[in-house]
Amino acid sequence: MFEKEYDVIVVGGGHAGAEAAAAAANMGSRTLLVTMNLQNIGQMSCNPAMGGIAKGQIVREIDALGGYSGIITDKSAIQFKMLNKSKGPAMWSPRAQNDRMRFAEEWRLALEETPLVDFYQEMVSGLLVSGERVIGVRTSLGLDIKAKAVVLTNGTFLNGLIHIGDKQFGGGRAGERAATGITEQLTDIGFDSGRMKTGTPPRVDGRSLDYDQMIPQPGDQNPEKFSYLQTPVLKKQRDCYMTHTNALVHDLLKEGFDRSPMFNGRIKSIGPRYCPSIEDKINRFSDKDSHQIFVEPEGWKTVEVYVNGFSTSLPEDIQYKALRSVKGFENVKFFRPGYAIEYDYFPPTQLKHTLETKLIANLYFAGQINGTTGYEEAASQGLMAGINAHLKINEKDPFMLQRDEAYIGVLIDDLITKGTEEPYRMFTSRAEYRTLLRQDNADLRLTPKSYEIGLANEERLFAMREKERKSNEFIEFFRNTSFDPEHINPILEDVSSSPVKQADKMFKVFSRPRVTMSHMLQLEKVSEYVSKNNLNREVLEQAEIQVKYSGYIAKEKNNADKLQRLENIKIPKDFDYTKLKSLSYEAREKLEAIQPVTISQASRISGVSPSDISVLLVYMGR
User: Fold this and answer.
1) Which of 93, 120, 255, 486 is the most buried (most CB within 10 A)?
2) DSSP letters of 229-240?
3) pLDDT: is 3 or 127 the higher one?
4) Would you identify the CATH topology of the domain 203-339?
């Protein structure tokens, strides 16, 4: 069945696997995507949404690099919101509700339209390893499939164990079996593994809910989108709704605590800190009488509803009884109860920045196998693993993103350098250069880099160059064009800004805090320029941010450049830290284990102090 050797085999068809397969194939690698169920490629296992705080920036970065997640999201969206719009642009984060079935369908179709992707449905039970190099995979039927590189994106399937109350059964997702064999083989080789936990809420019948008792949560009036390409913009949207738990709901949930796998010791692994179960919330925040519940439709036509905020592994009878006491849920009908799932992961400090394992050459890990949580985090790792697998087997330089270049760079550096003992989720607060890493400029930051390595195409590069050119020319227009006081003063009066007495350049008045692009467009000279040059919303937004935040952006870029000097000081491979007696014992232990590539990476390792870094710098003649 498989006489030829593939360039890249991707194991798993979730968000990480789908992006890995697409990236490797689009760069020219003959790629095989092996998954246990071809009907579930790109499945949204938890909430039917993409993006959110920092996650939206990641989706835009994936798109800027030539990945598919932004395109798929736009094609299947049912609602769009730009979060944090009341804050500065570094915090703006796009988020879309999606049609769950259409999202998976669009992913399947996109991959089928990618010529170099082949598909095979079966469980991979082990790896083929020769010496210290992976050479393929072995399936549960005993088929050996050869490849130059393998990307593992197993999600929650590695020895997955599902918990509902005091019931537990093997599975990687509701209705799907767990994957076995890979963890055991890797630990025998010498990898460290651990267990993590995540959970999901009940799915319910929307026809049984009383939406009149809930608070509507509509999308933006003028919705944007994720992809920088010409994907569809939403013309109509579906509302979500909000309701709340109450003291009675909490009391009913507590009745099941003695049967809760979280509290009776059945679940021993750590769950996501920032997405706790409802029982965890009422236990940890016992002073709160209510918690928000977001009621999210699963698609345009289906009646299935996702109960966001009610993730639980309590017994199904307790889930049902408690949810019926939530306002609007009095007559609720369940499609399925919520559950928790435990699964194997491999601490990511065992990886290089390319996501290649240190122990086995040409073997890459991406997604929840690395201890992350979230579709967006998984997809970005899949993209980077697919890119680097292709580059490695073609003997080209690896592709890595620095912390000042992308949230993806922050994510991977955090994982490789610091590791994680709980499911890792991206936040804007994790990025020290978030003013540089905005959602609006991901294409300007990353598309040229991706084009150079052969992933982003001419269409993307041309669109990015046009946006850059038009934005820069518009900014120069503001720098060189004067305003008339009689035209600008009424606008300044409206925003309680002090009037001007004489003509000056528009850039100066536009830089004022309360003056926005919409105010500037009231000036005839500006509106004529916009109309004449056919400037779209993206160009207007980019120009406004560059004008108003130019000082902050320049300062942050300067700070990044200073720290980049440490990034340029390489540490020799297999450096012997034991000979540096001035290093603390903890620093030697951590440095030996992680083997940082640069001084900058070493400085970010927990337990390595500034004095330890000084010792390294002195030794290297710096």
Assistant:
1) 93
2) SSPPPPSS---E
3) 127
4) Elongation Factor Tu (Ef-tu); domain 3 (2.40.30)
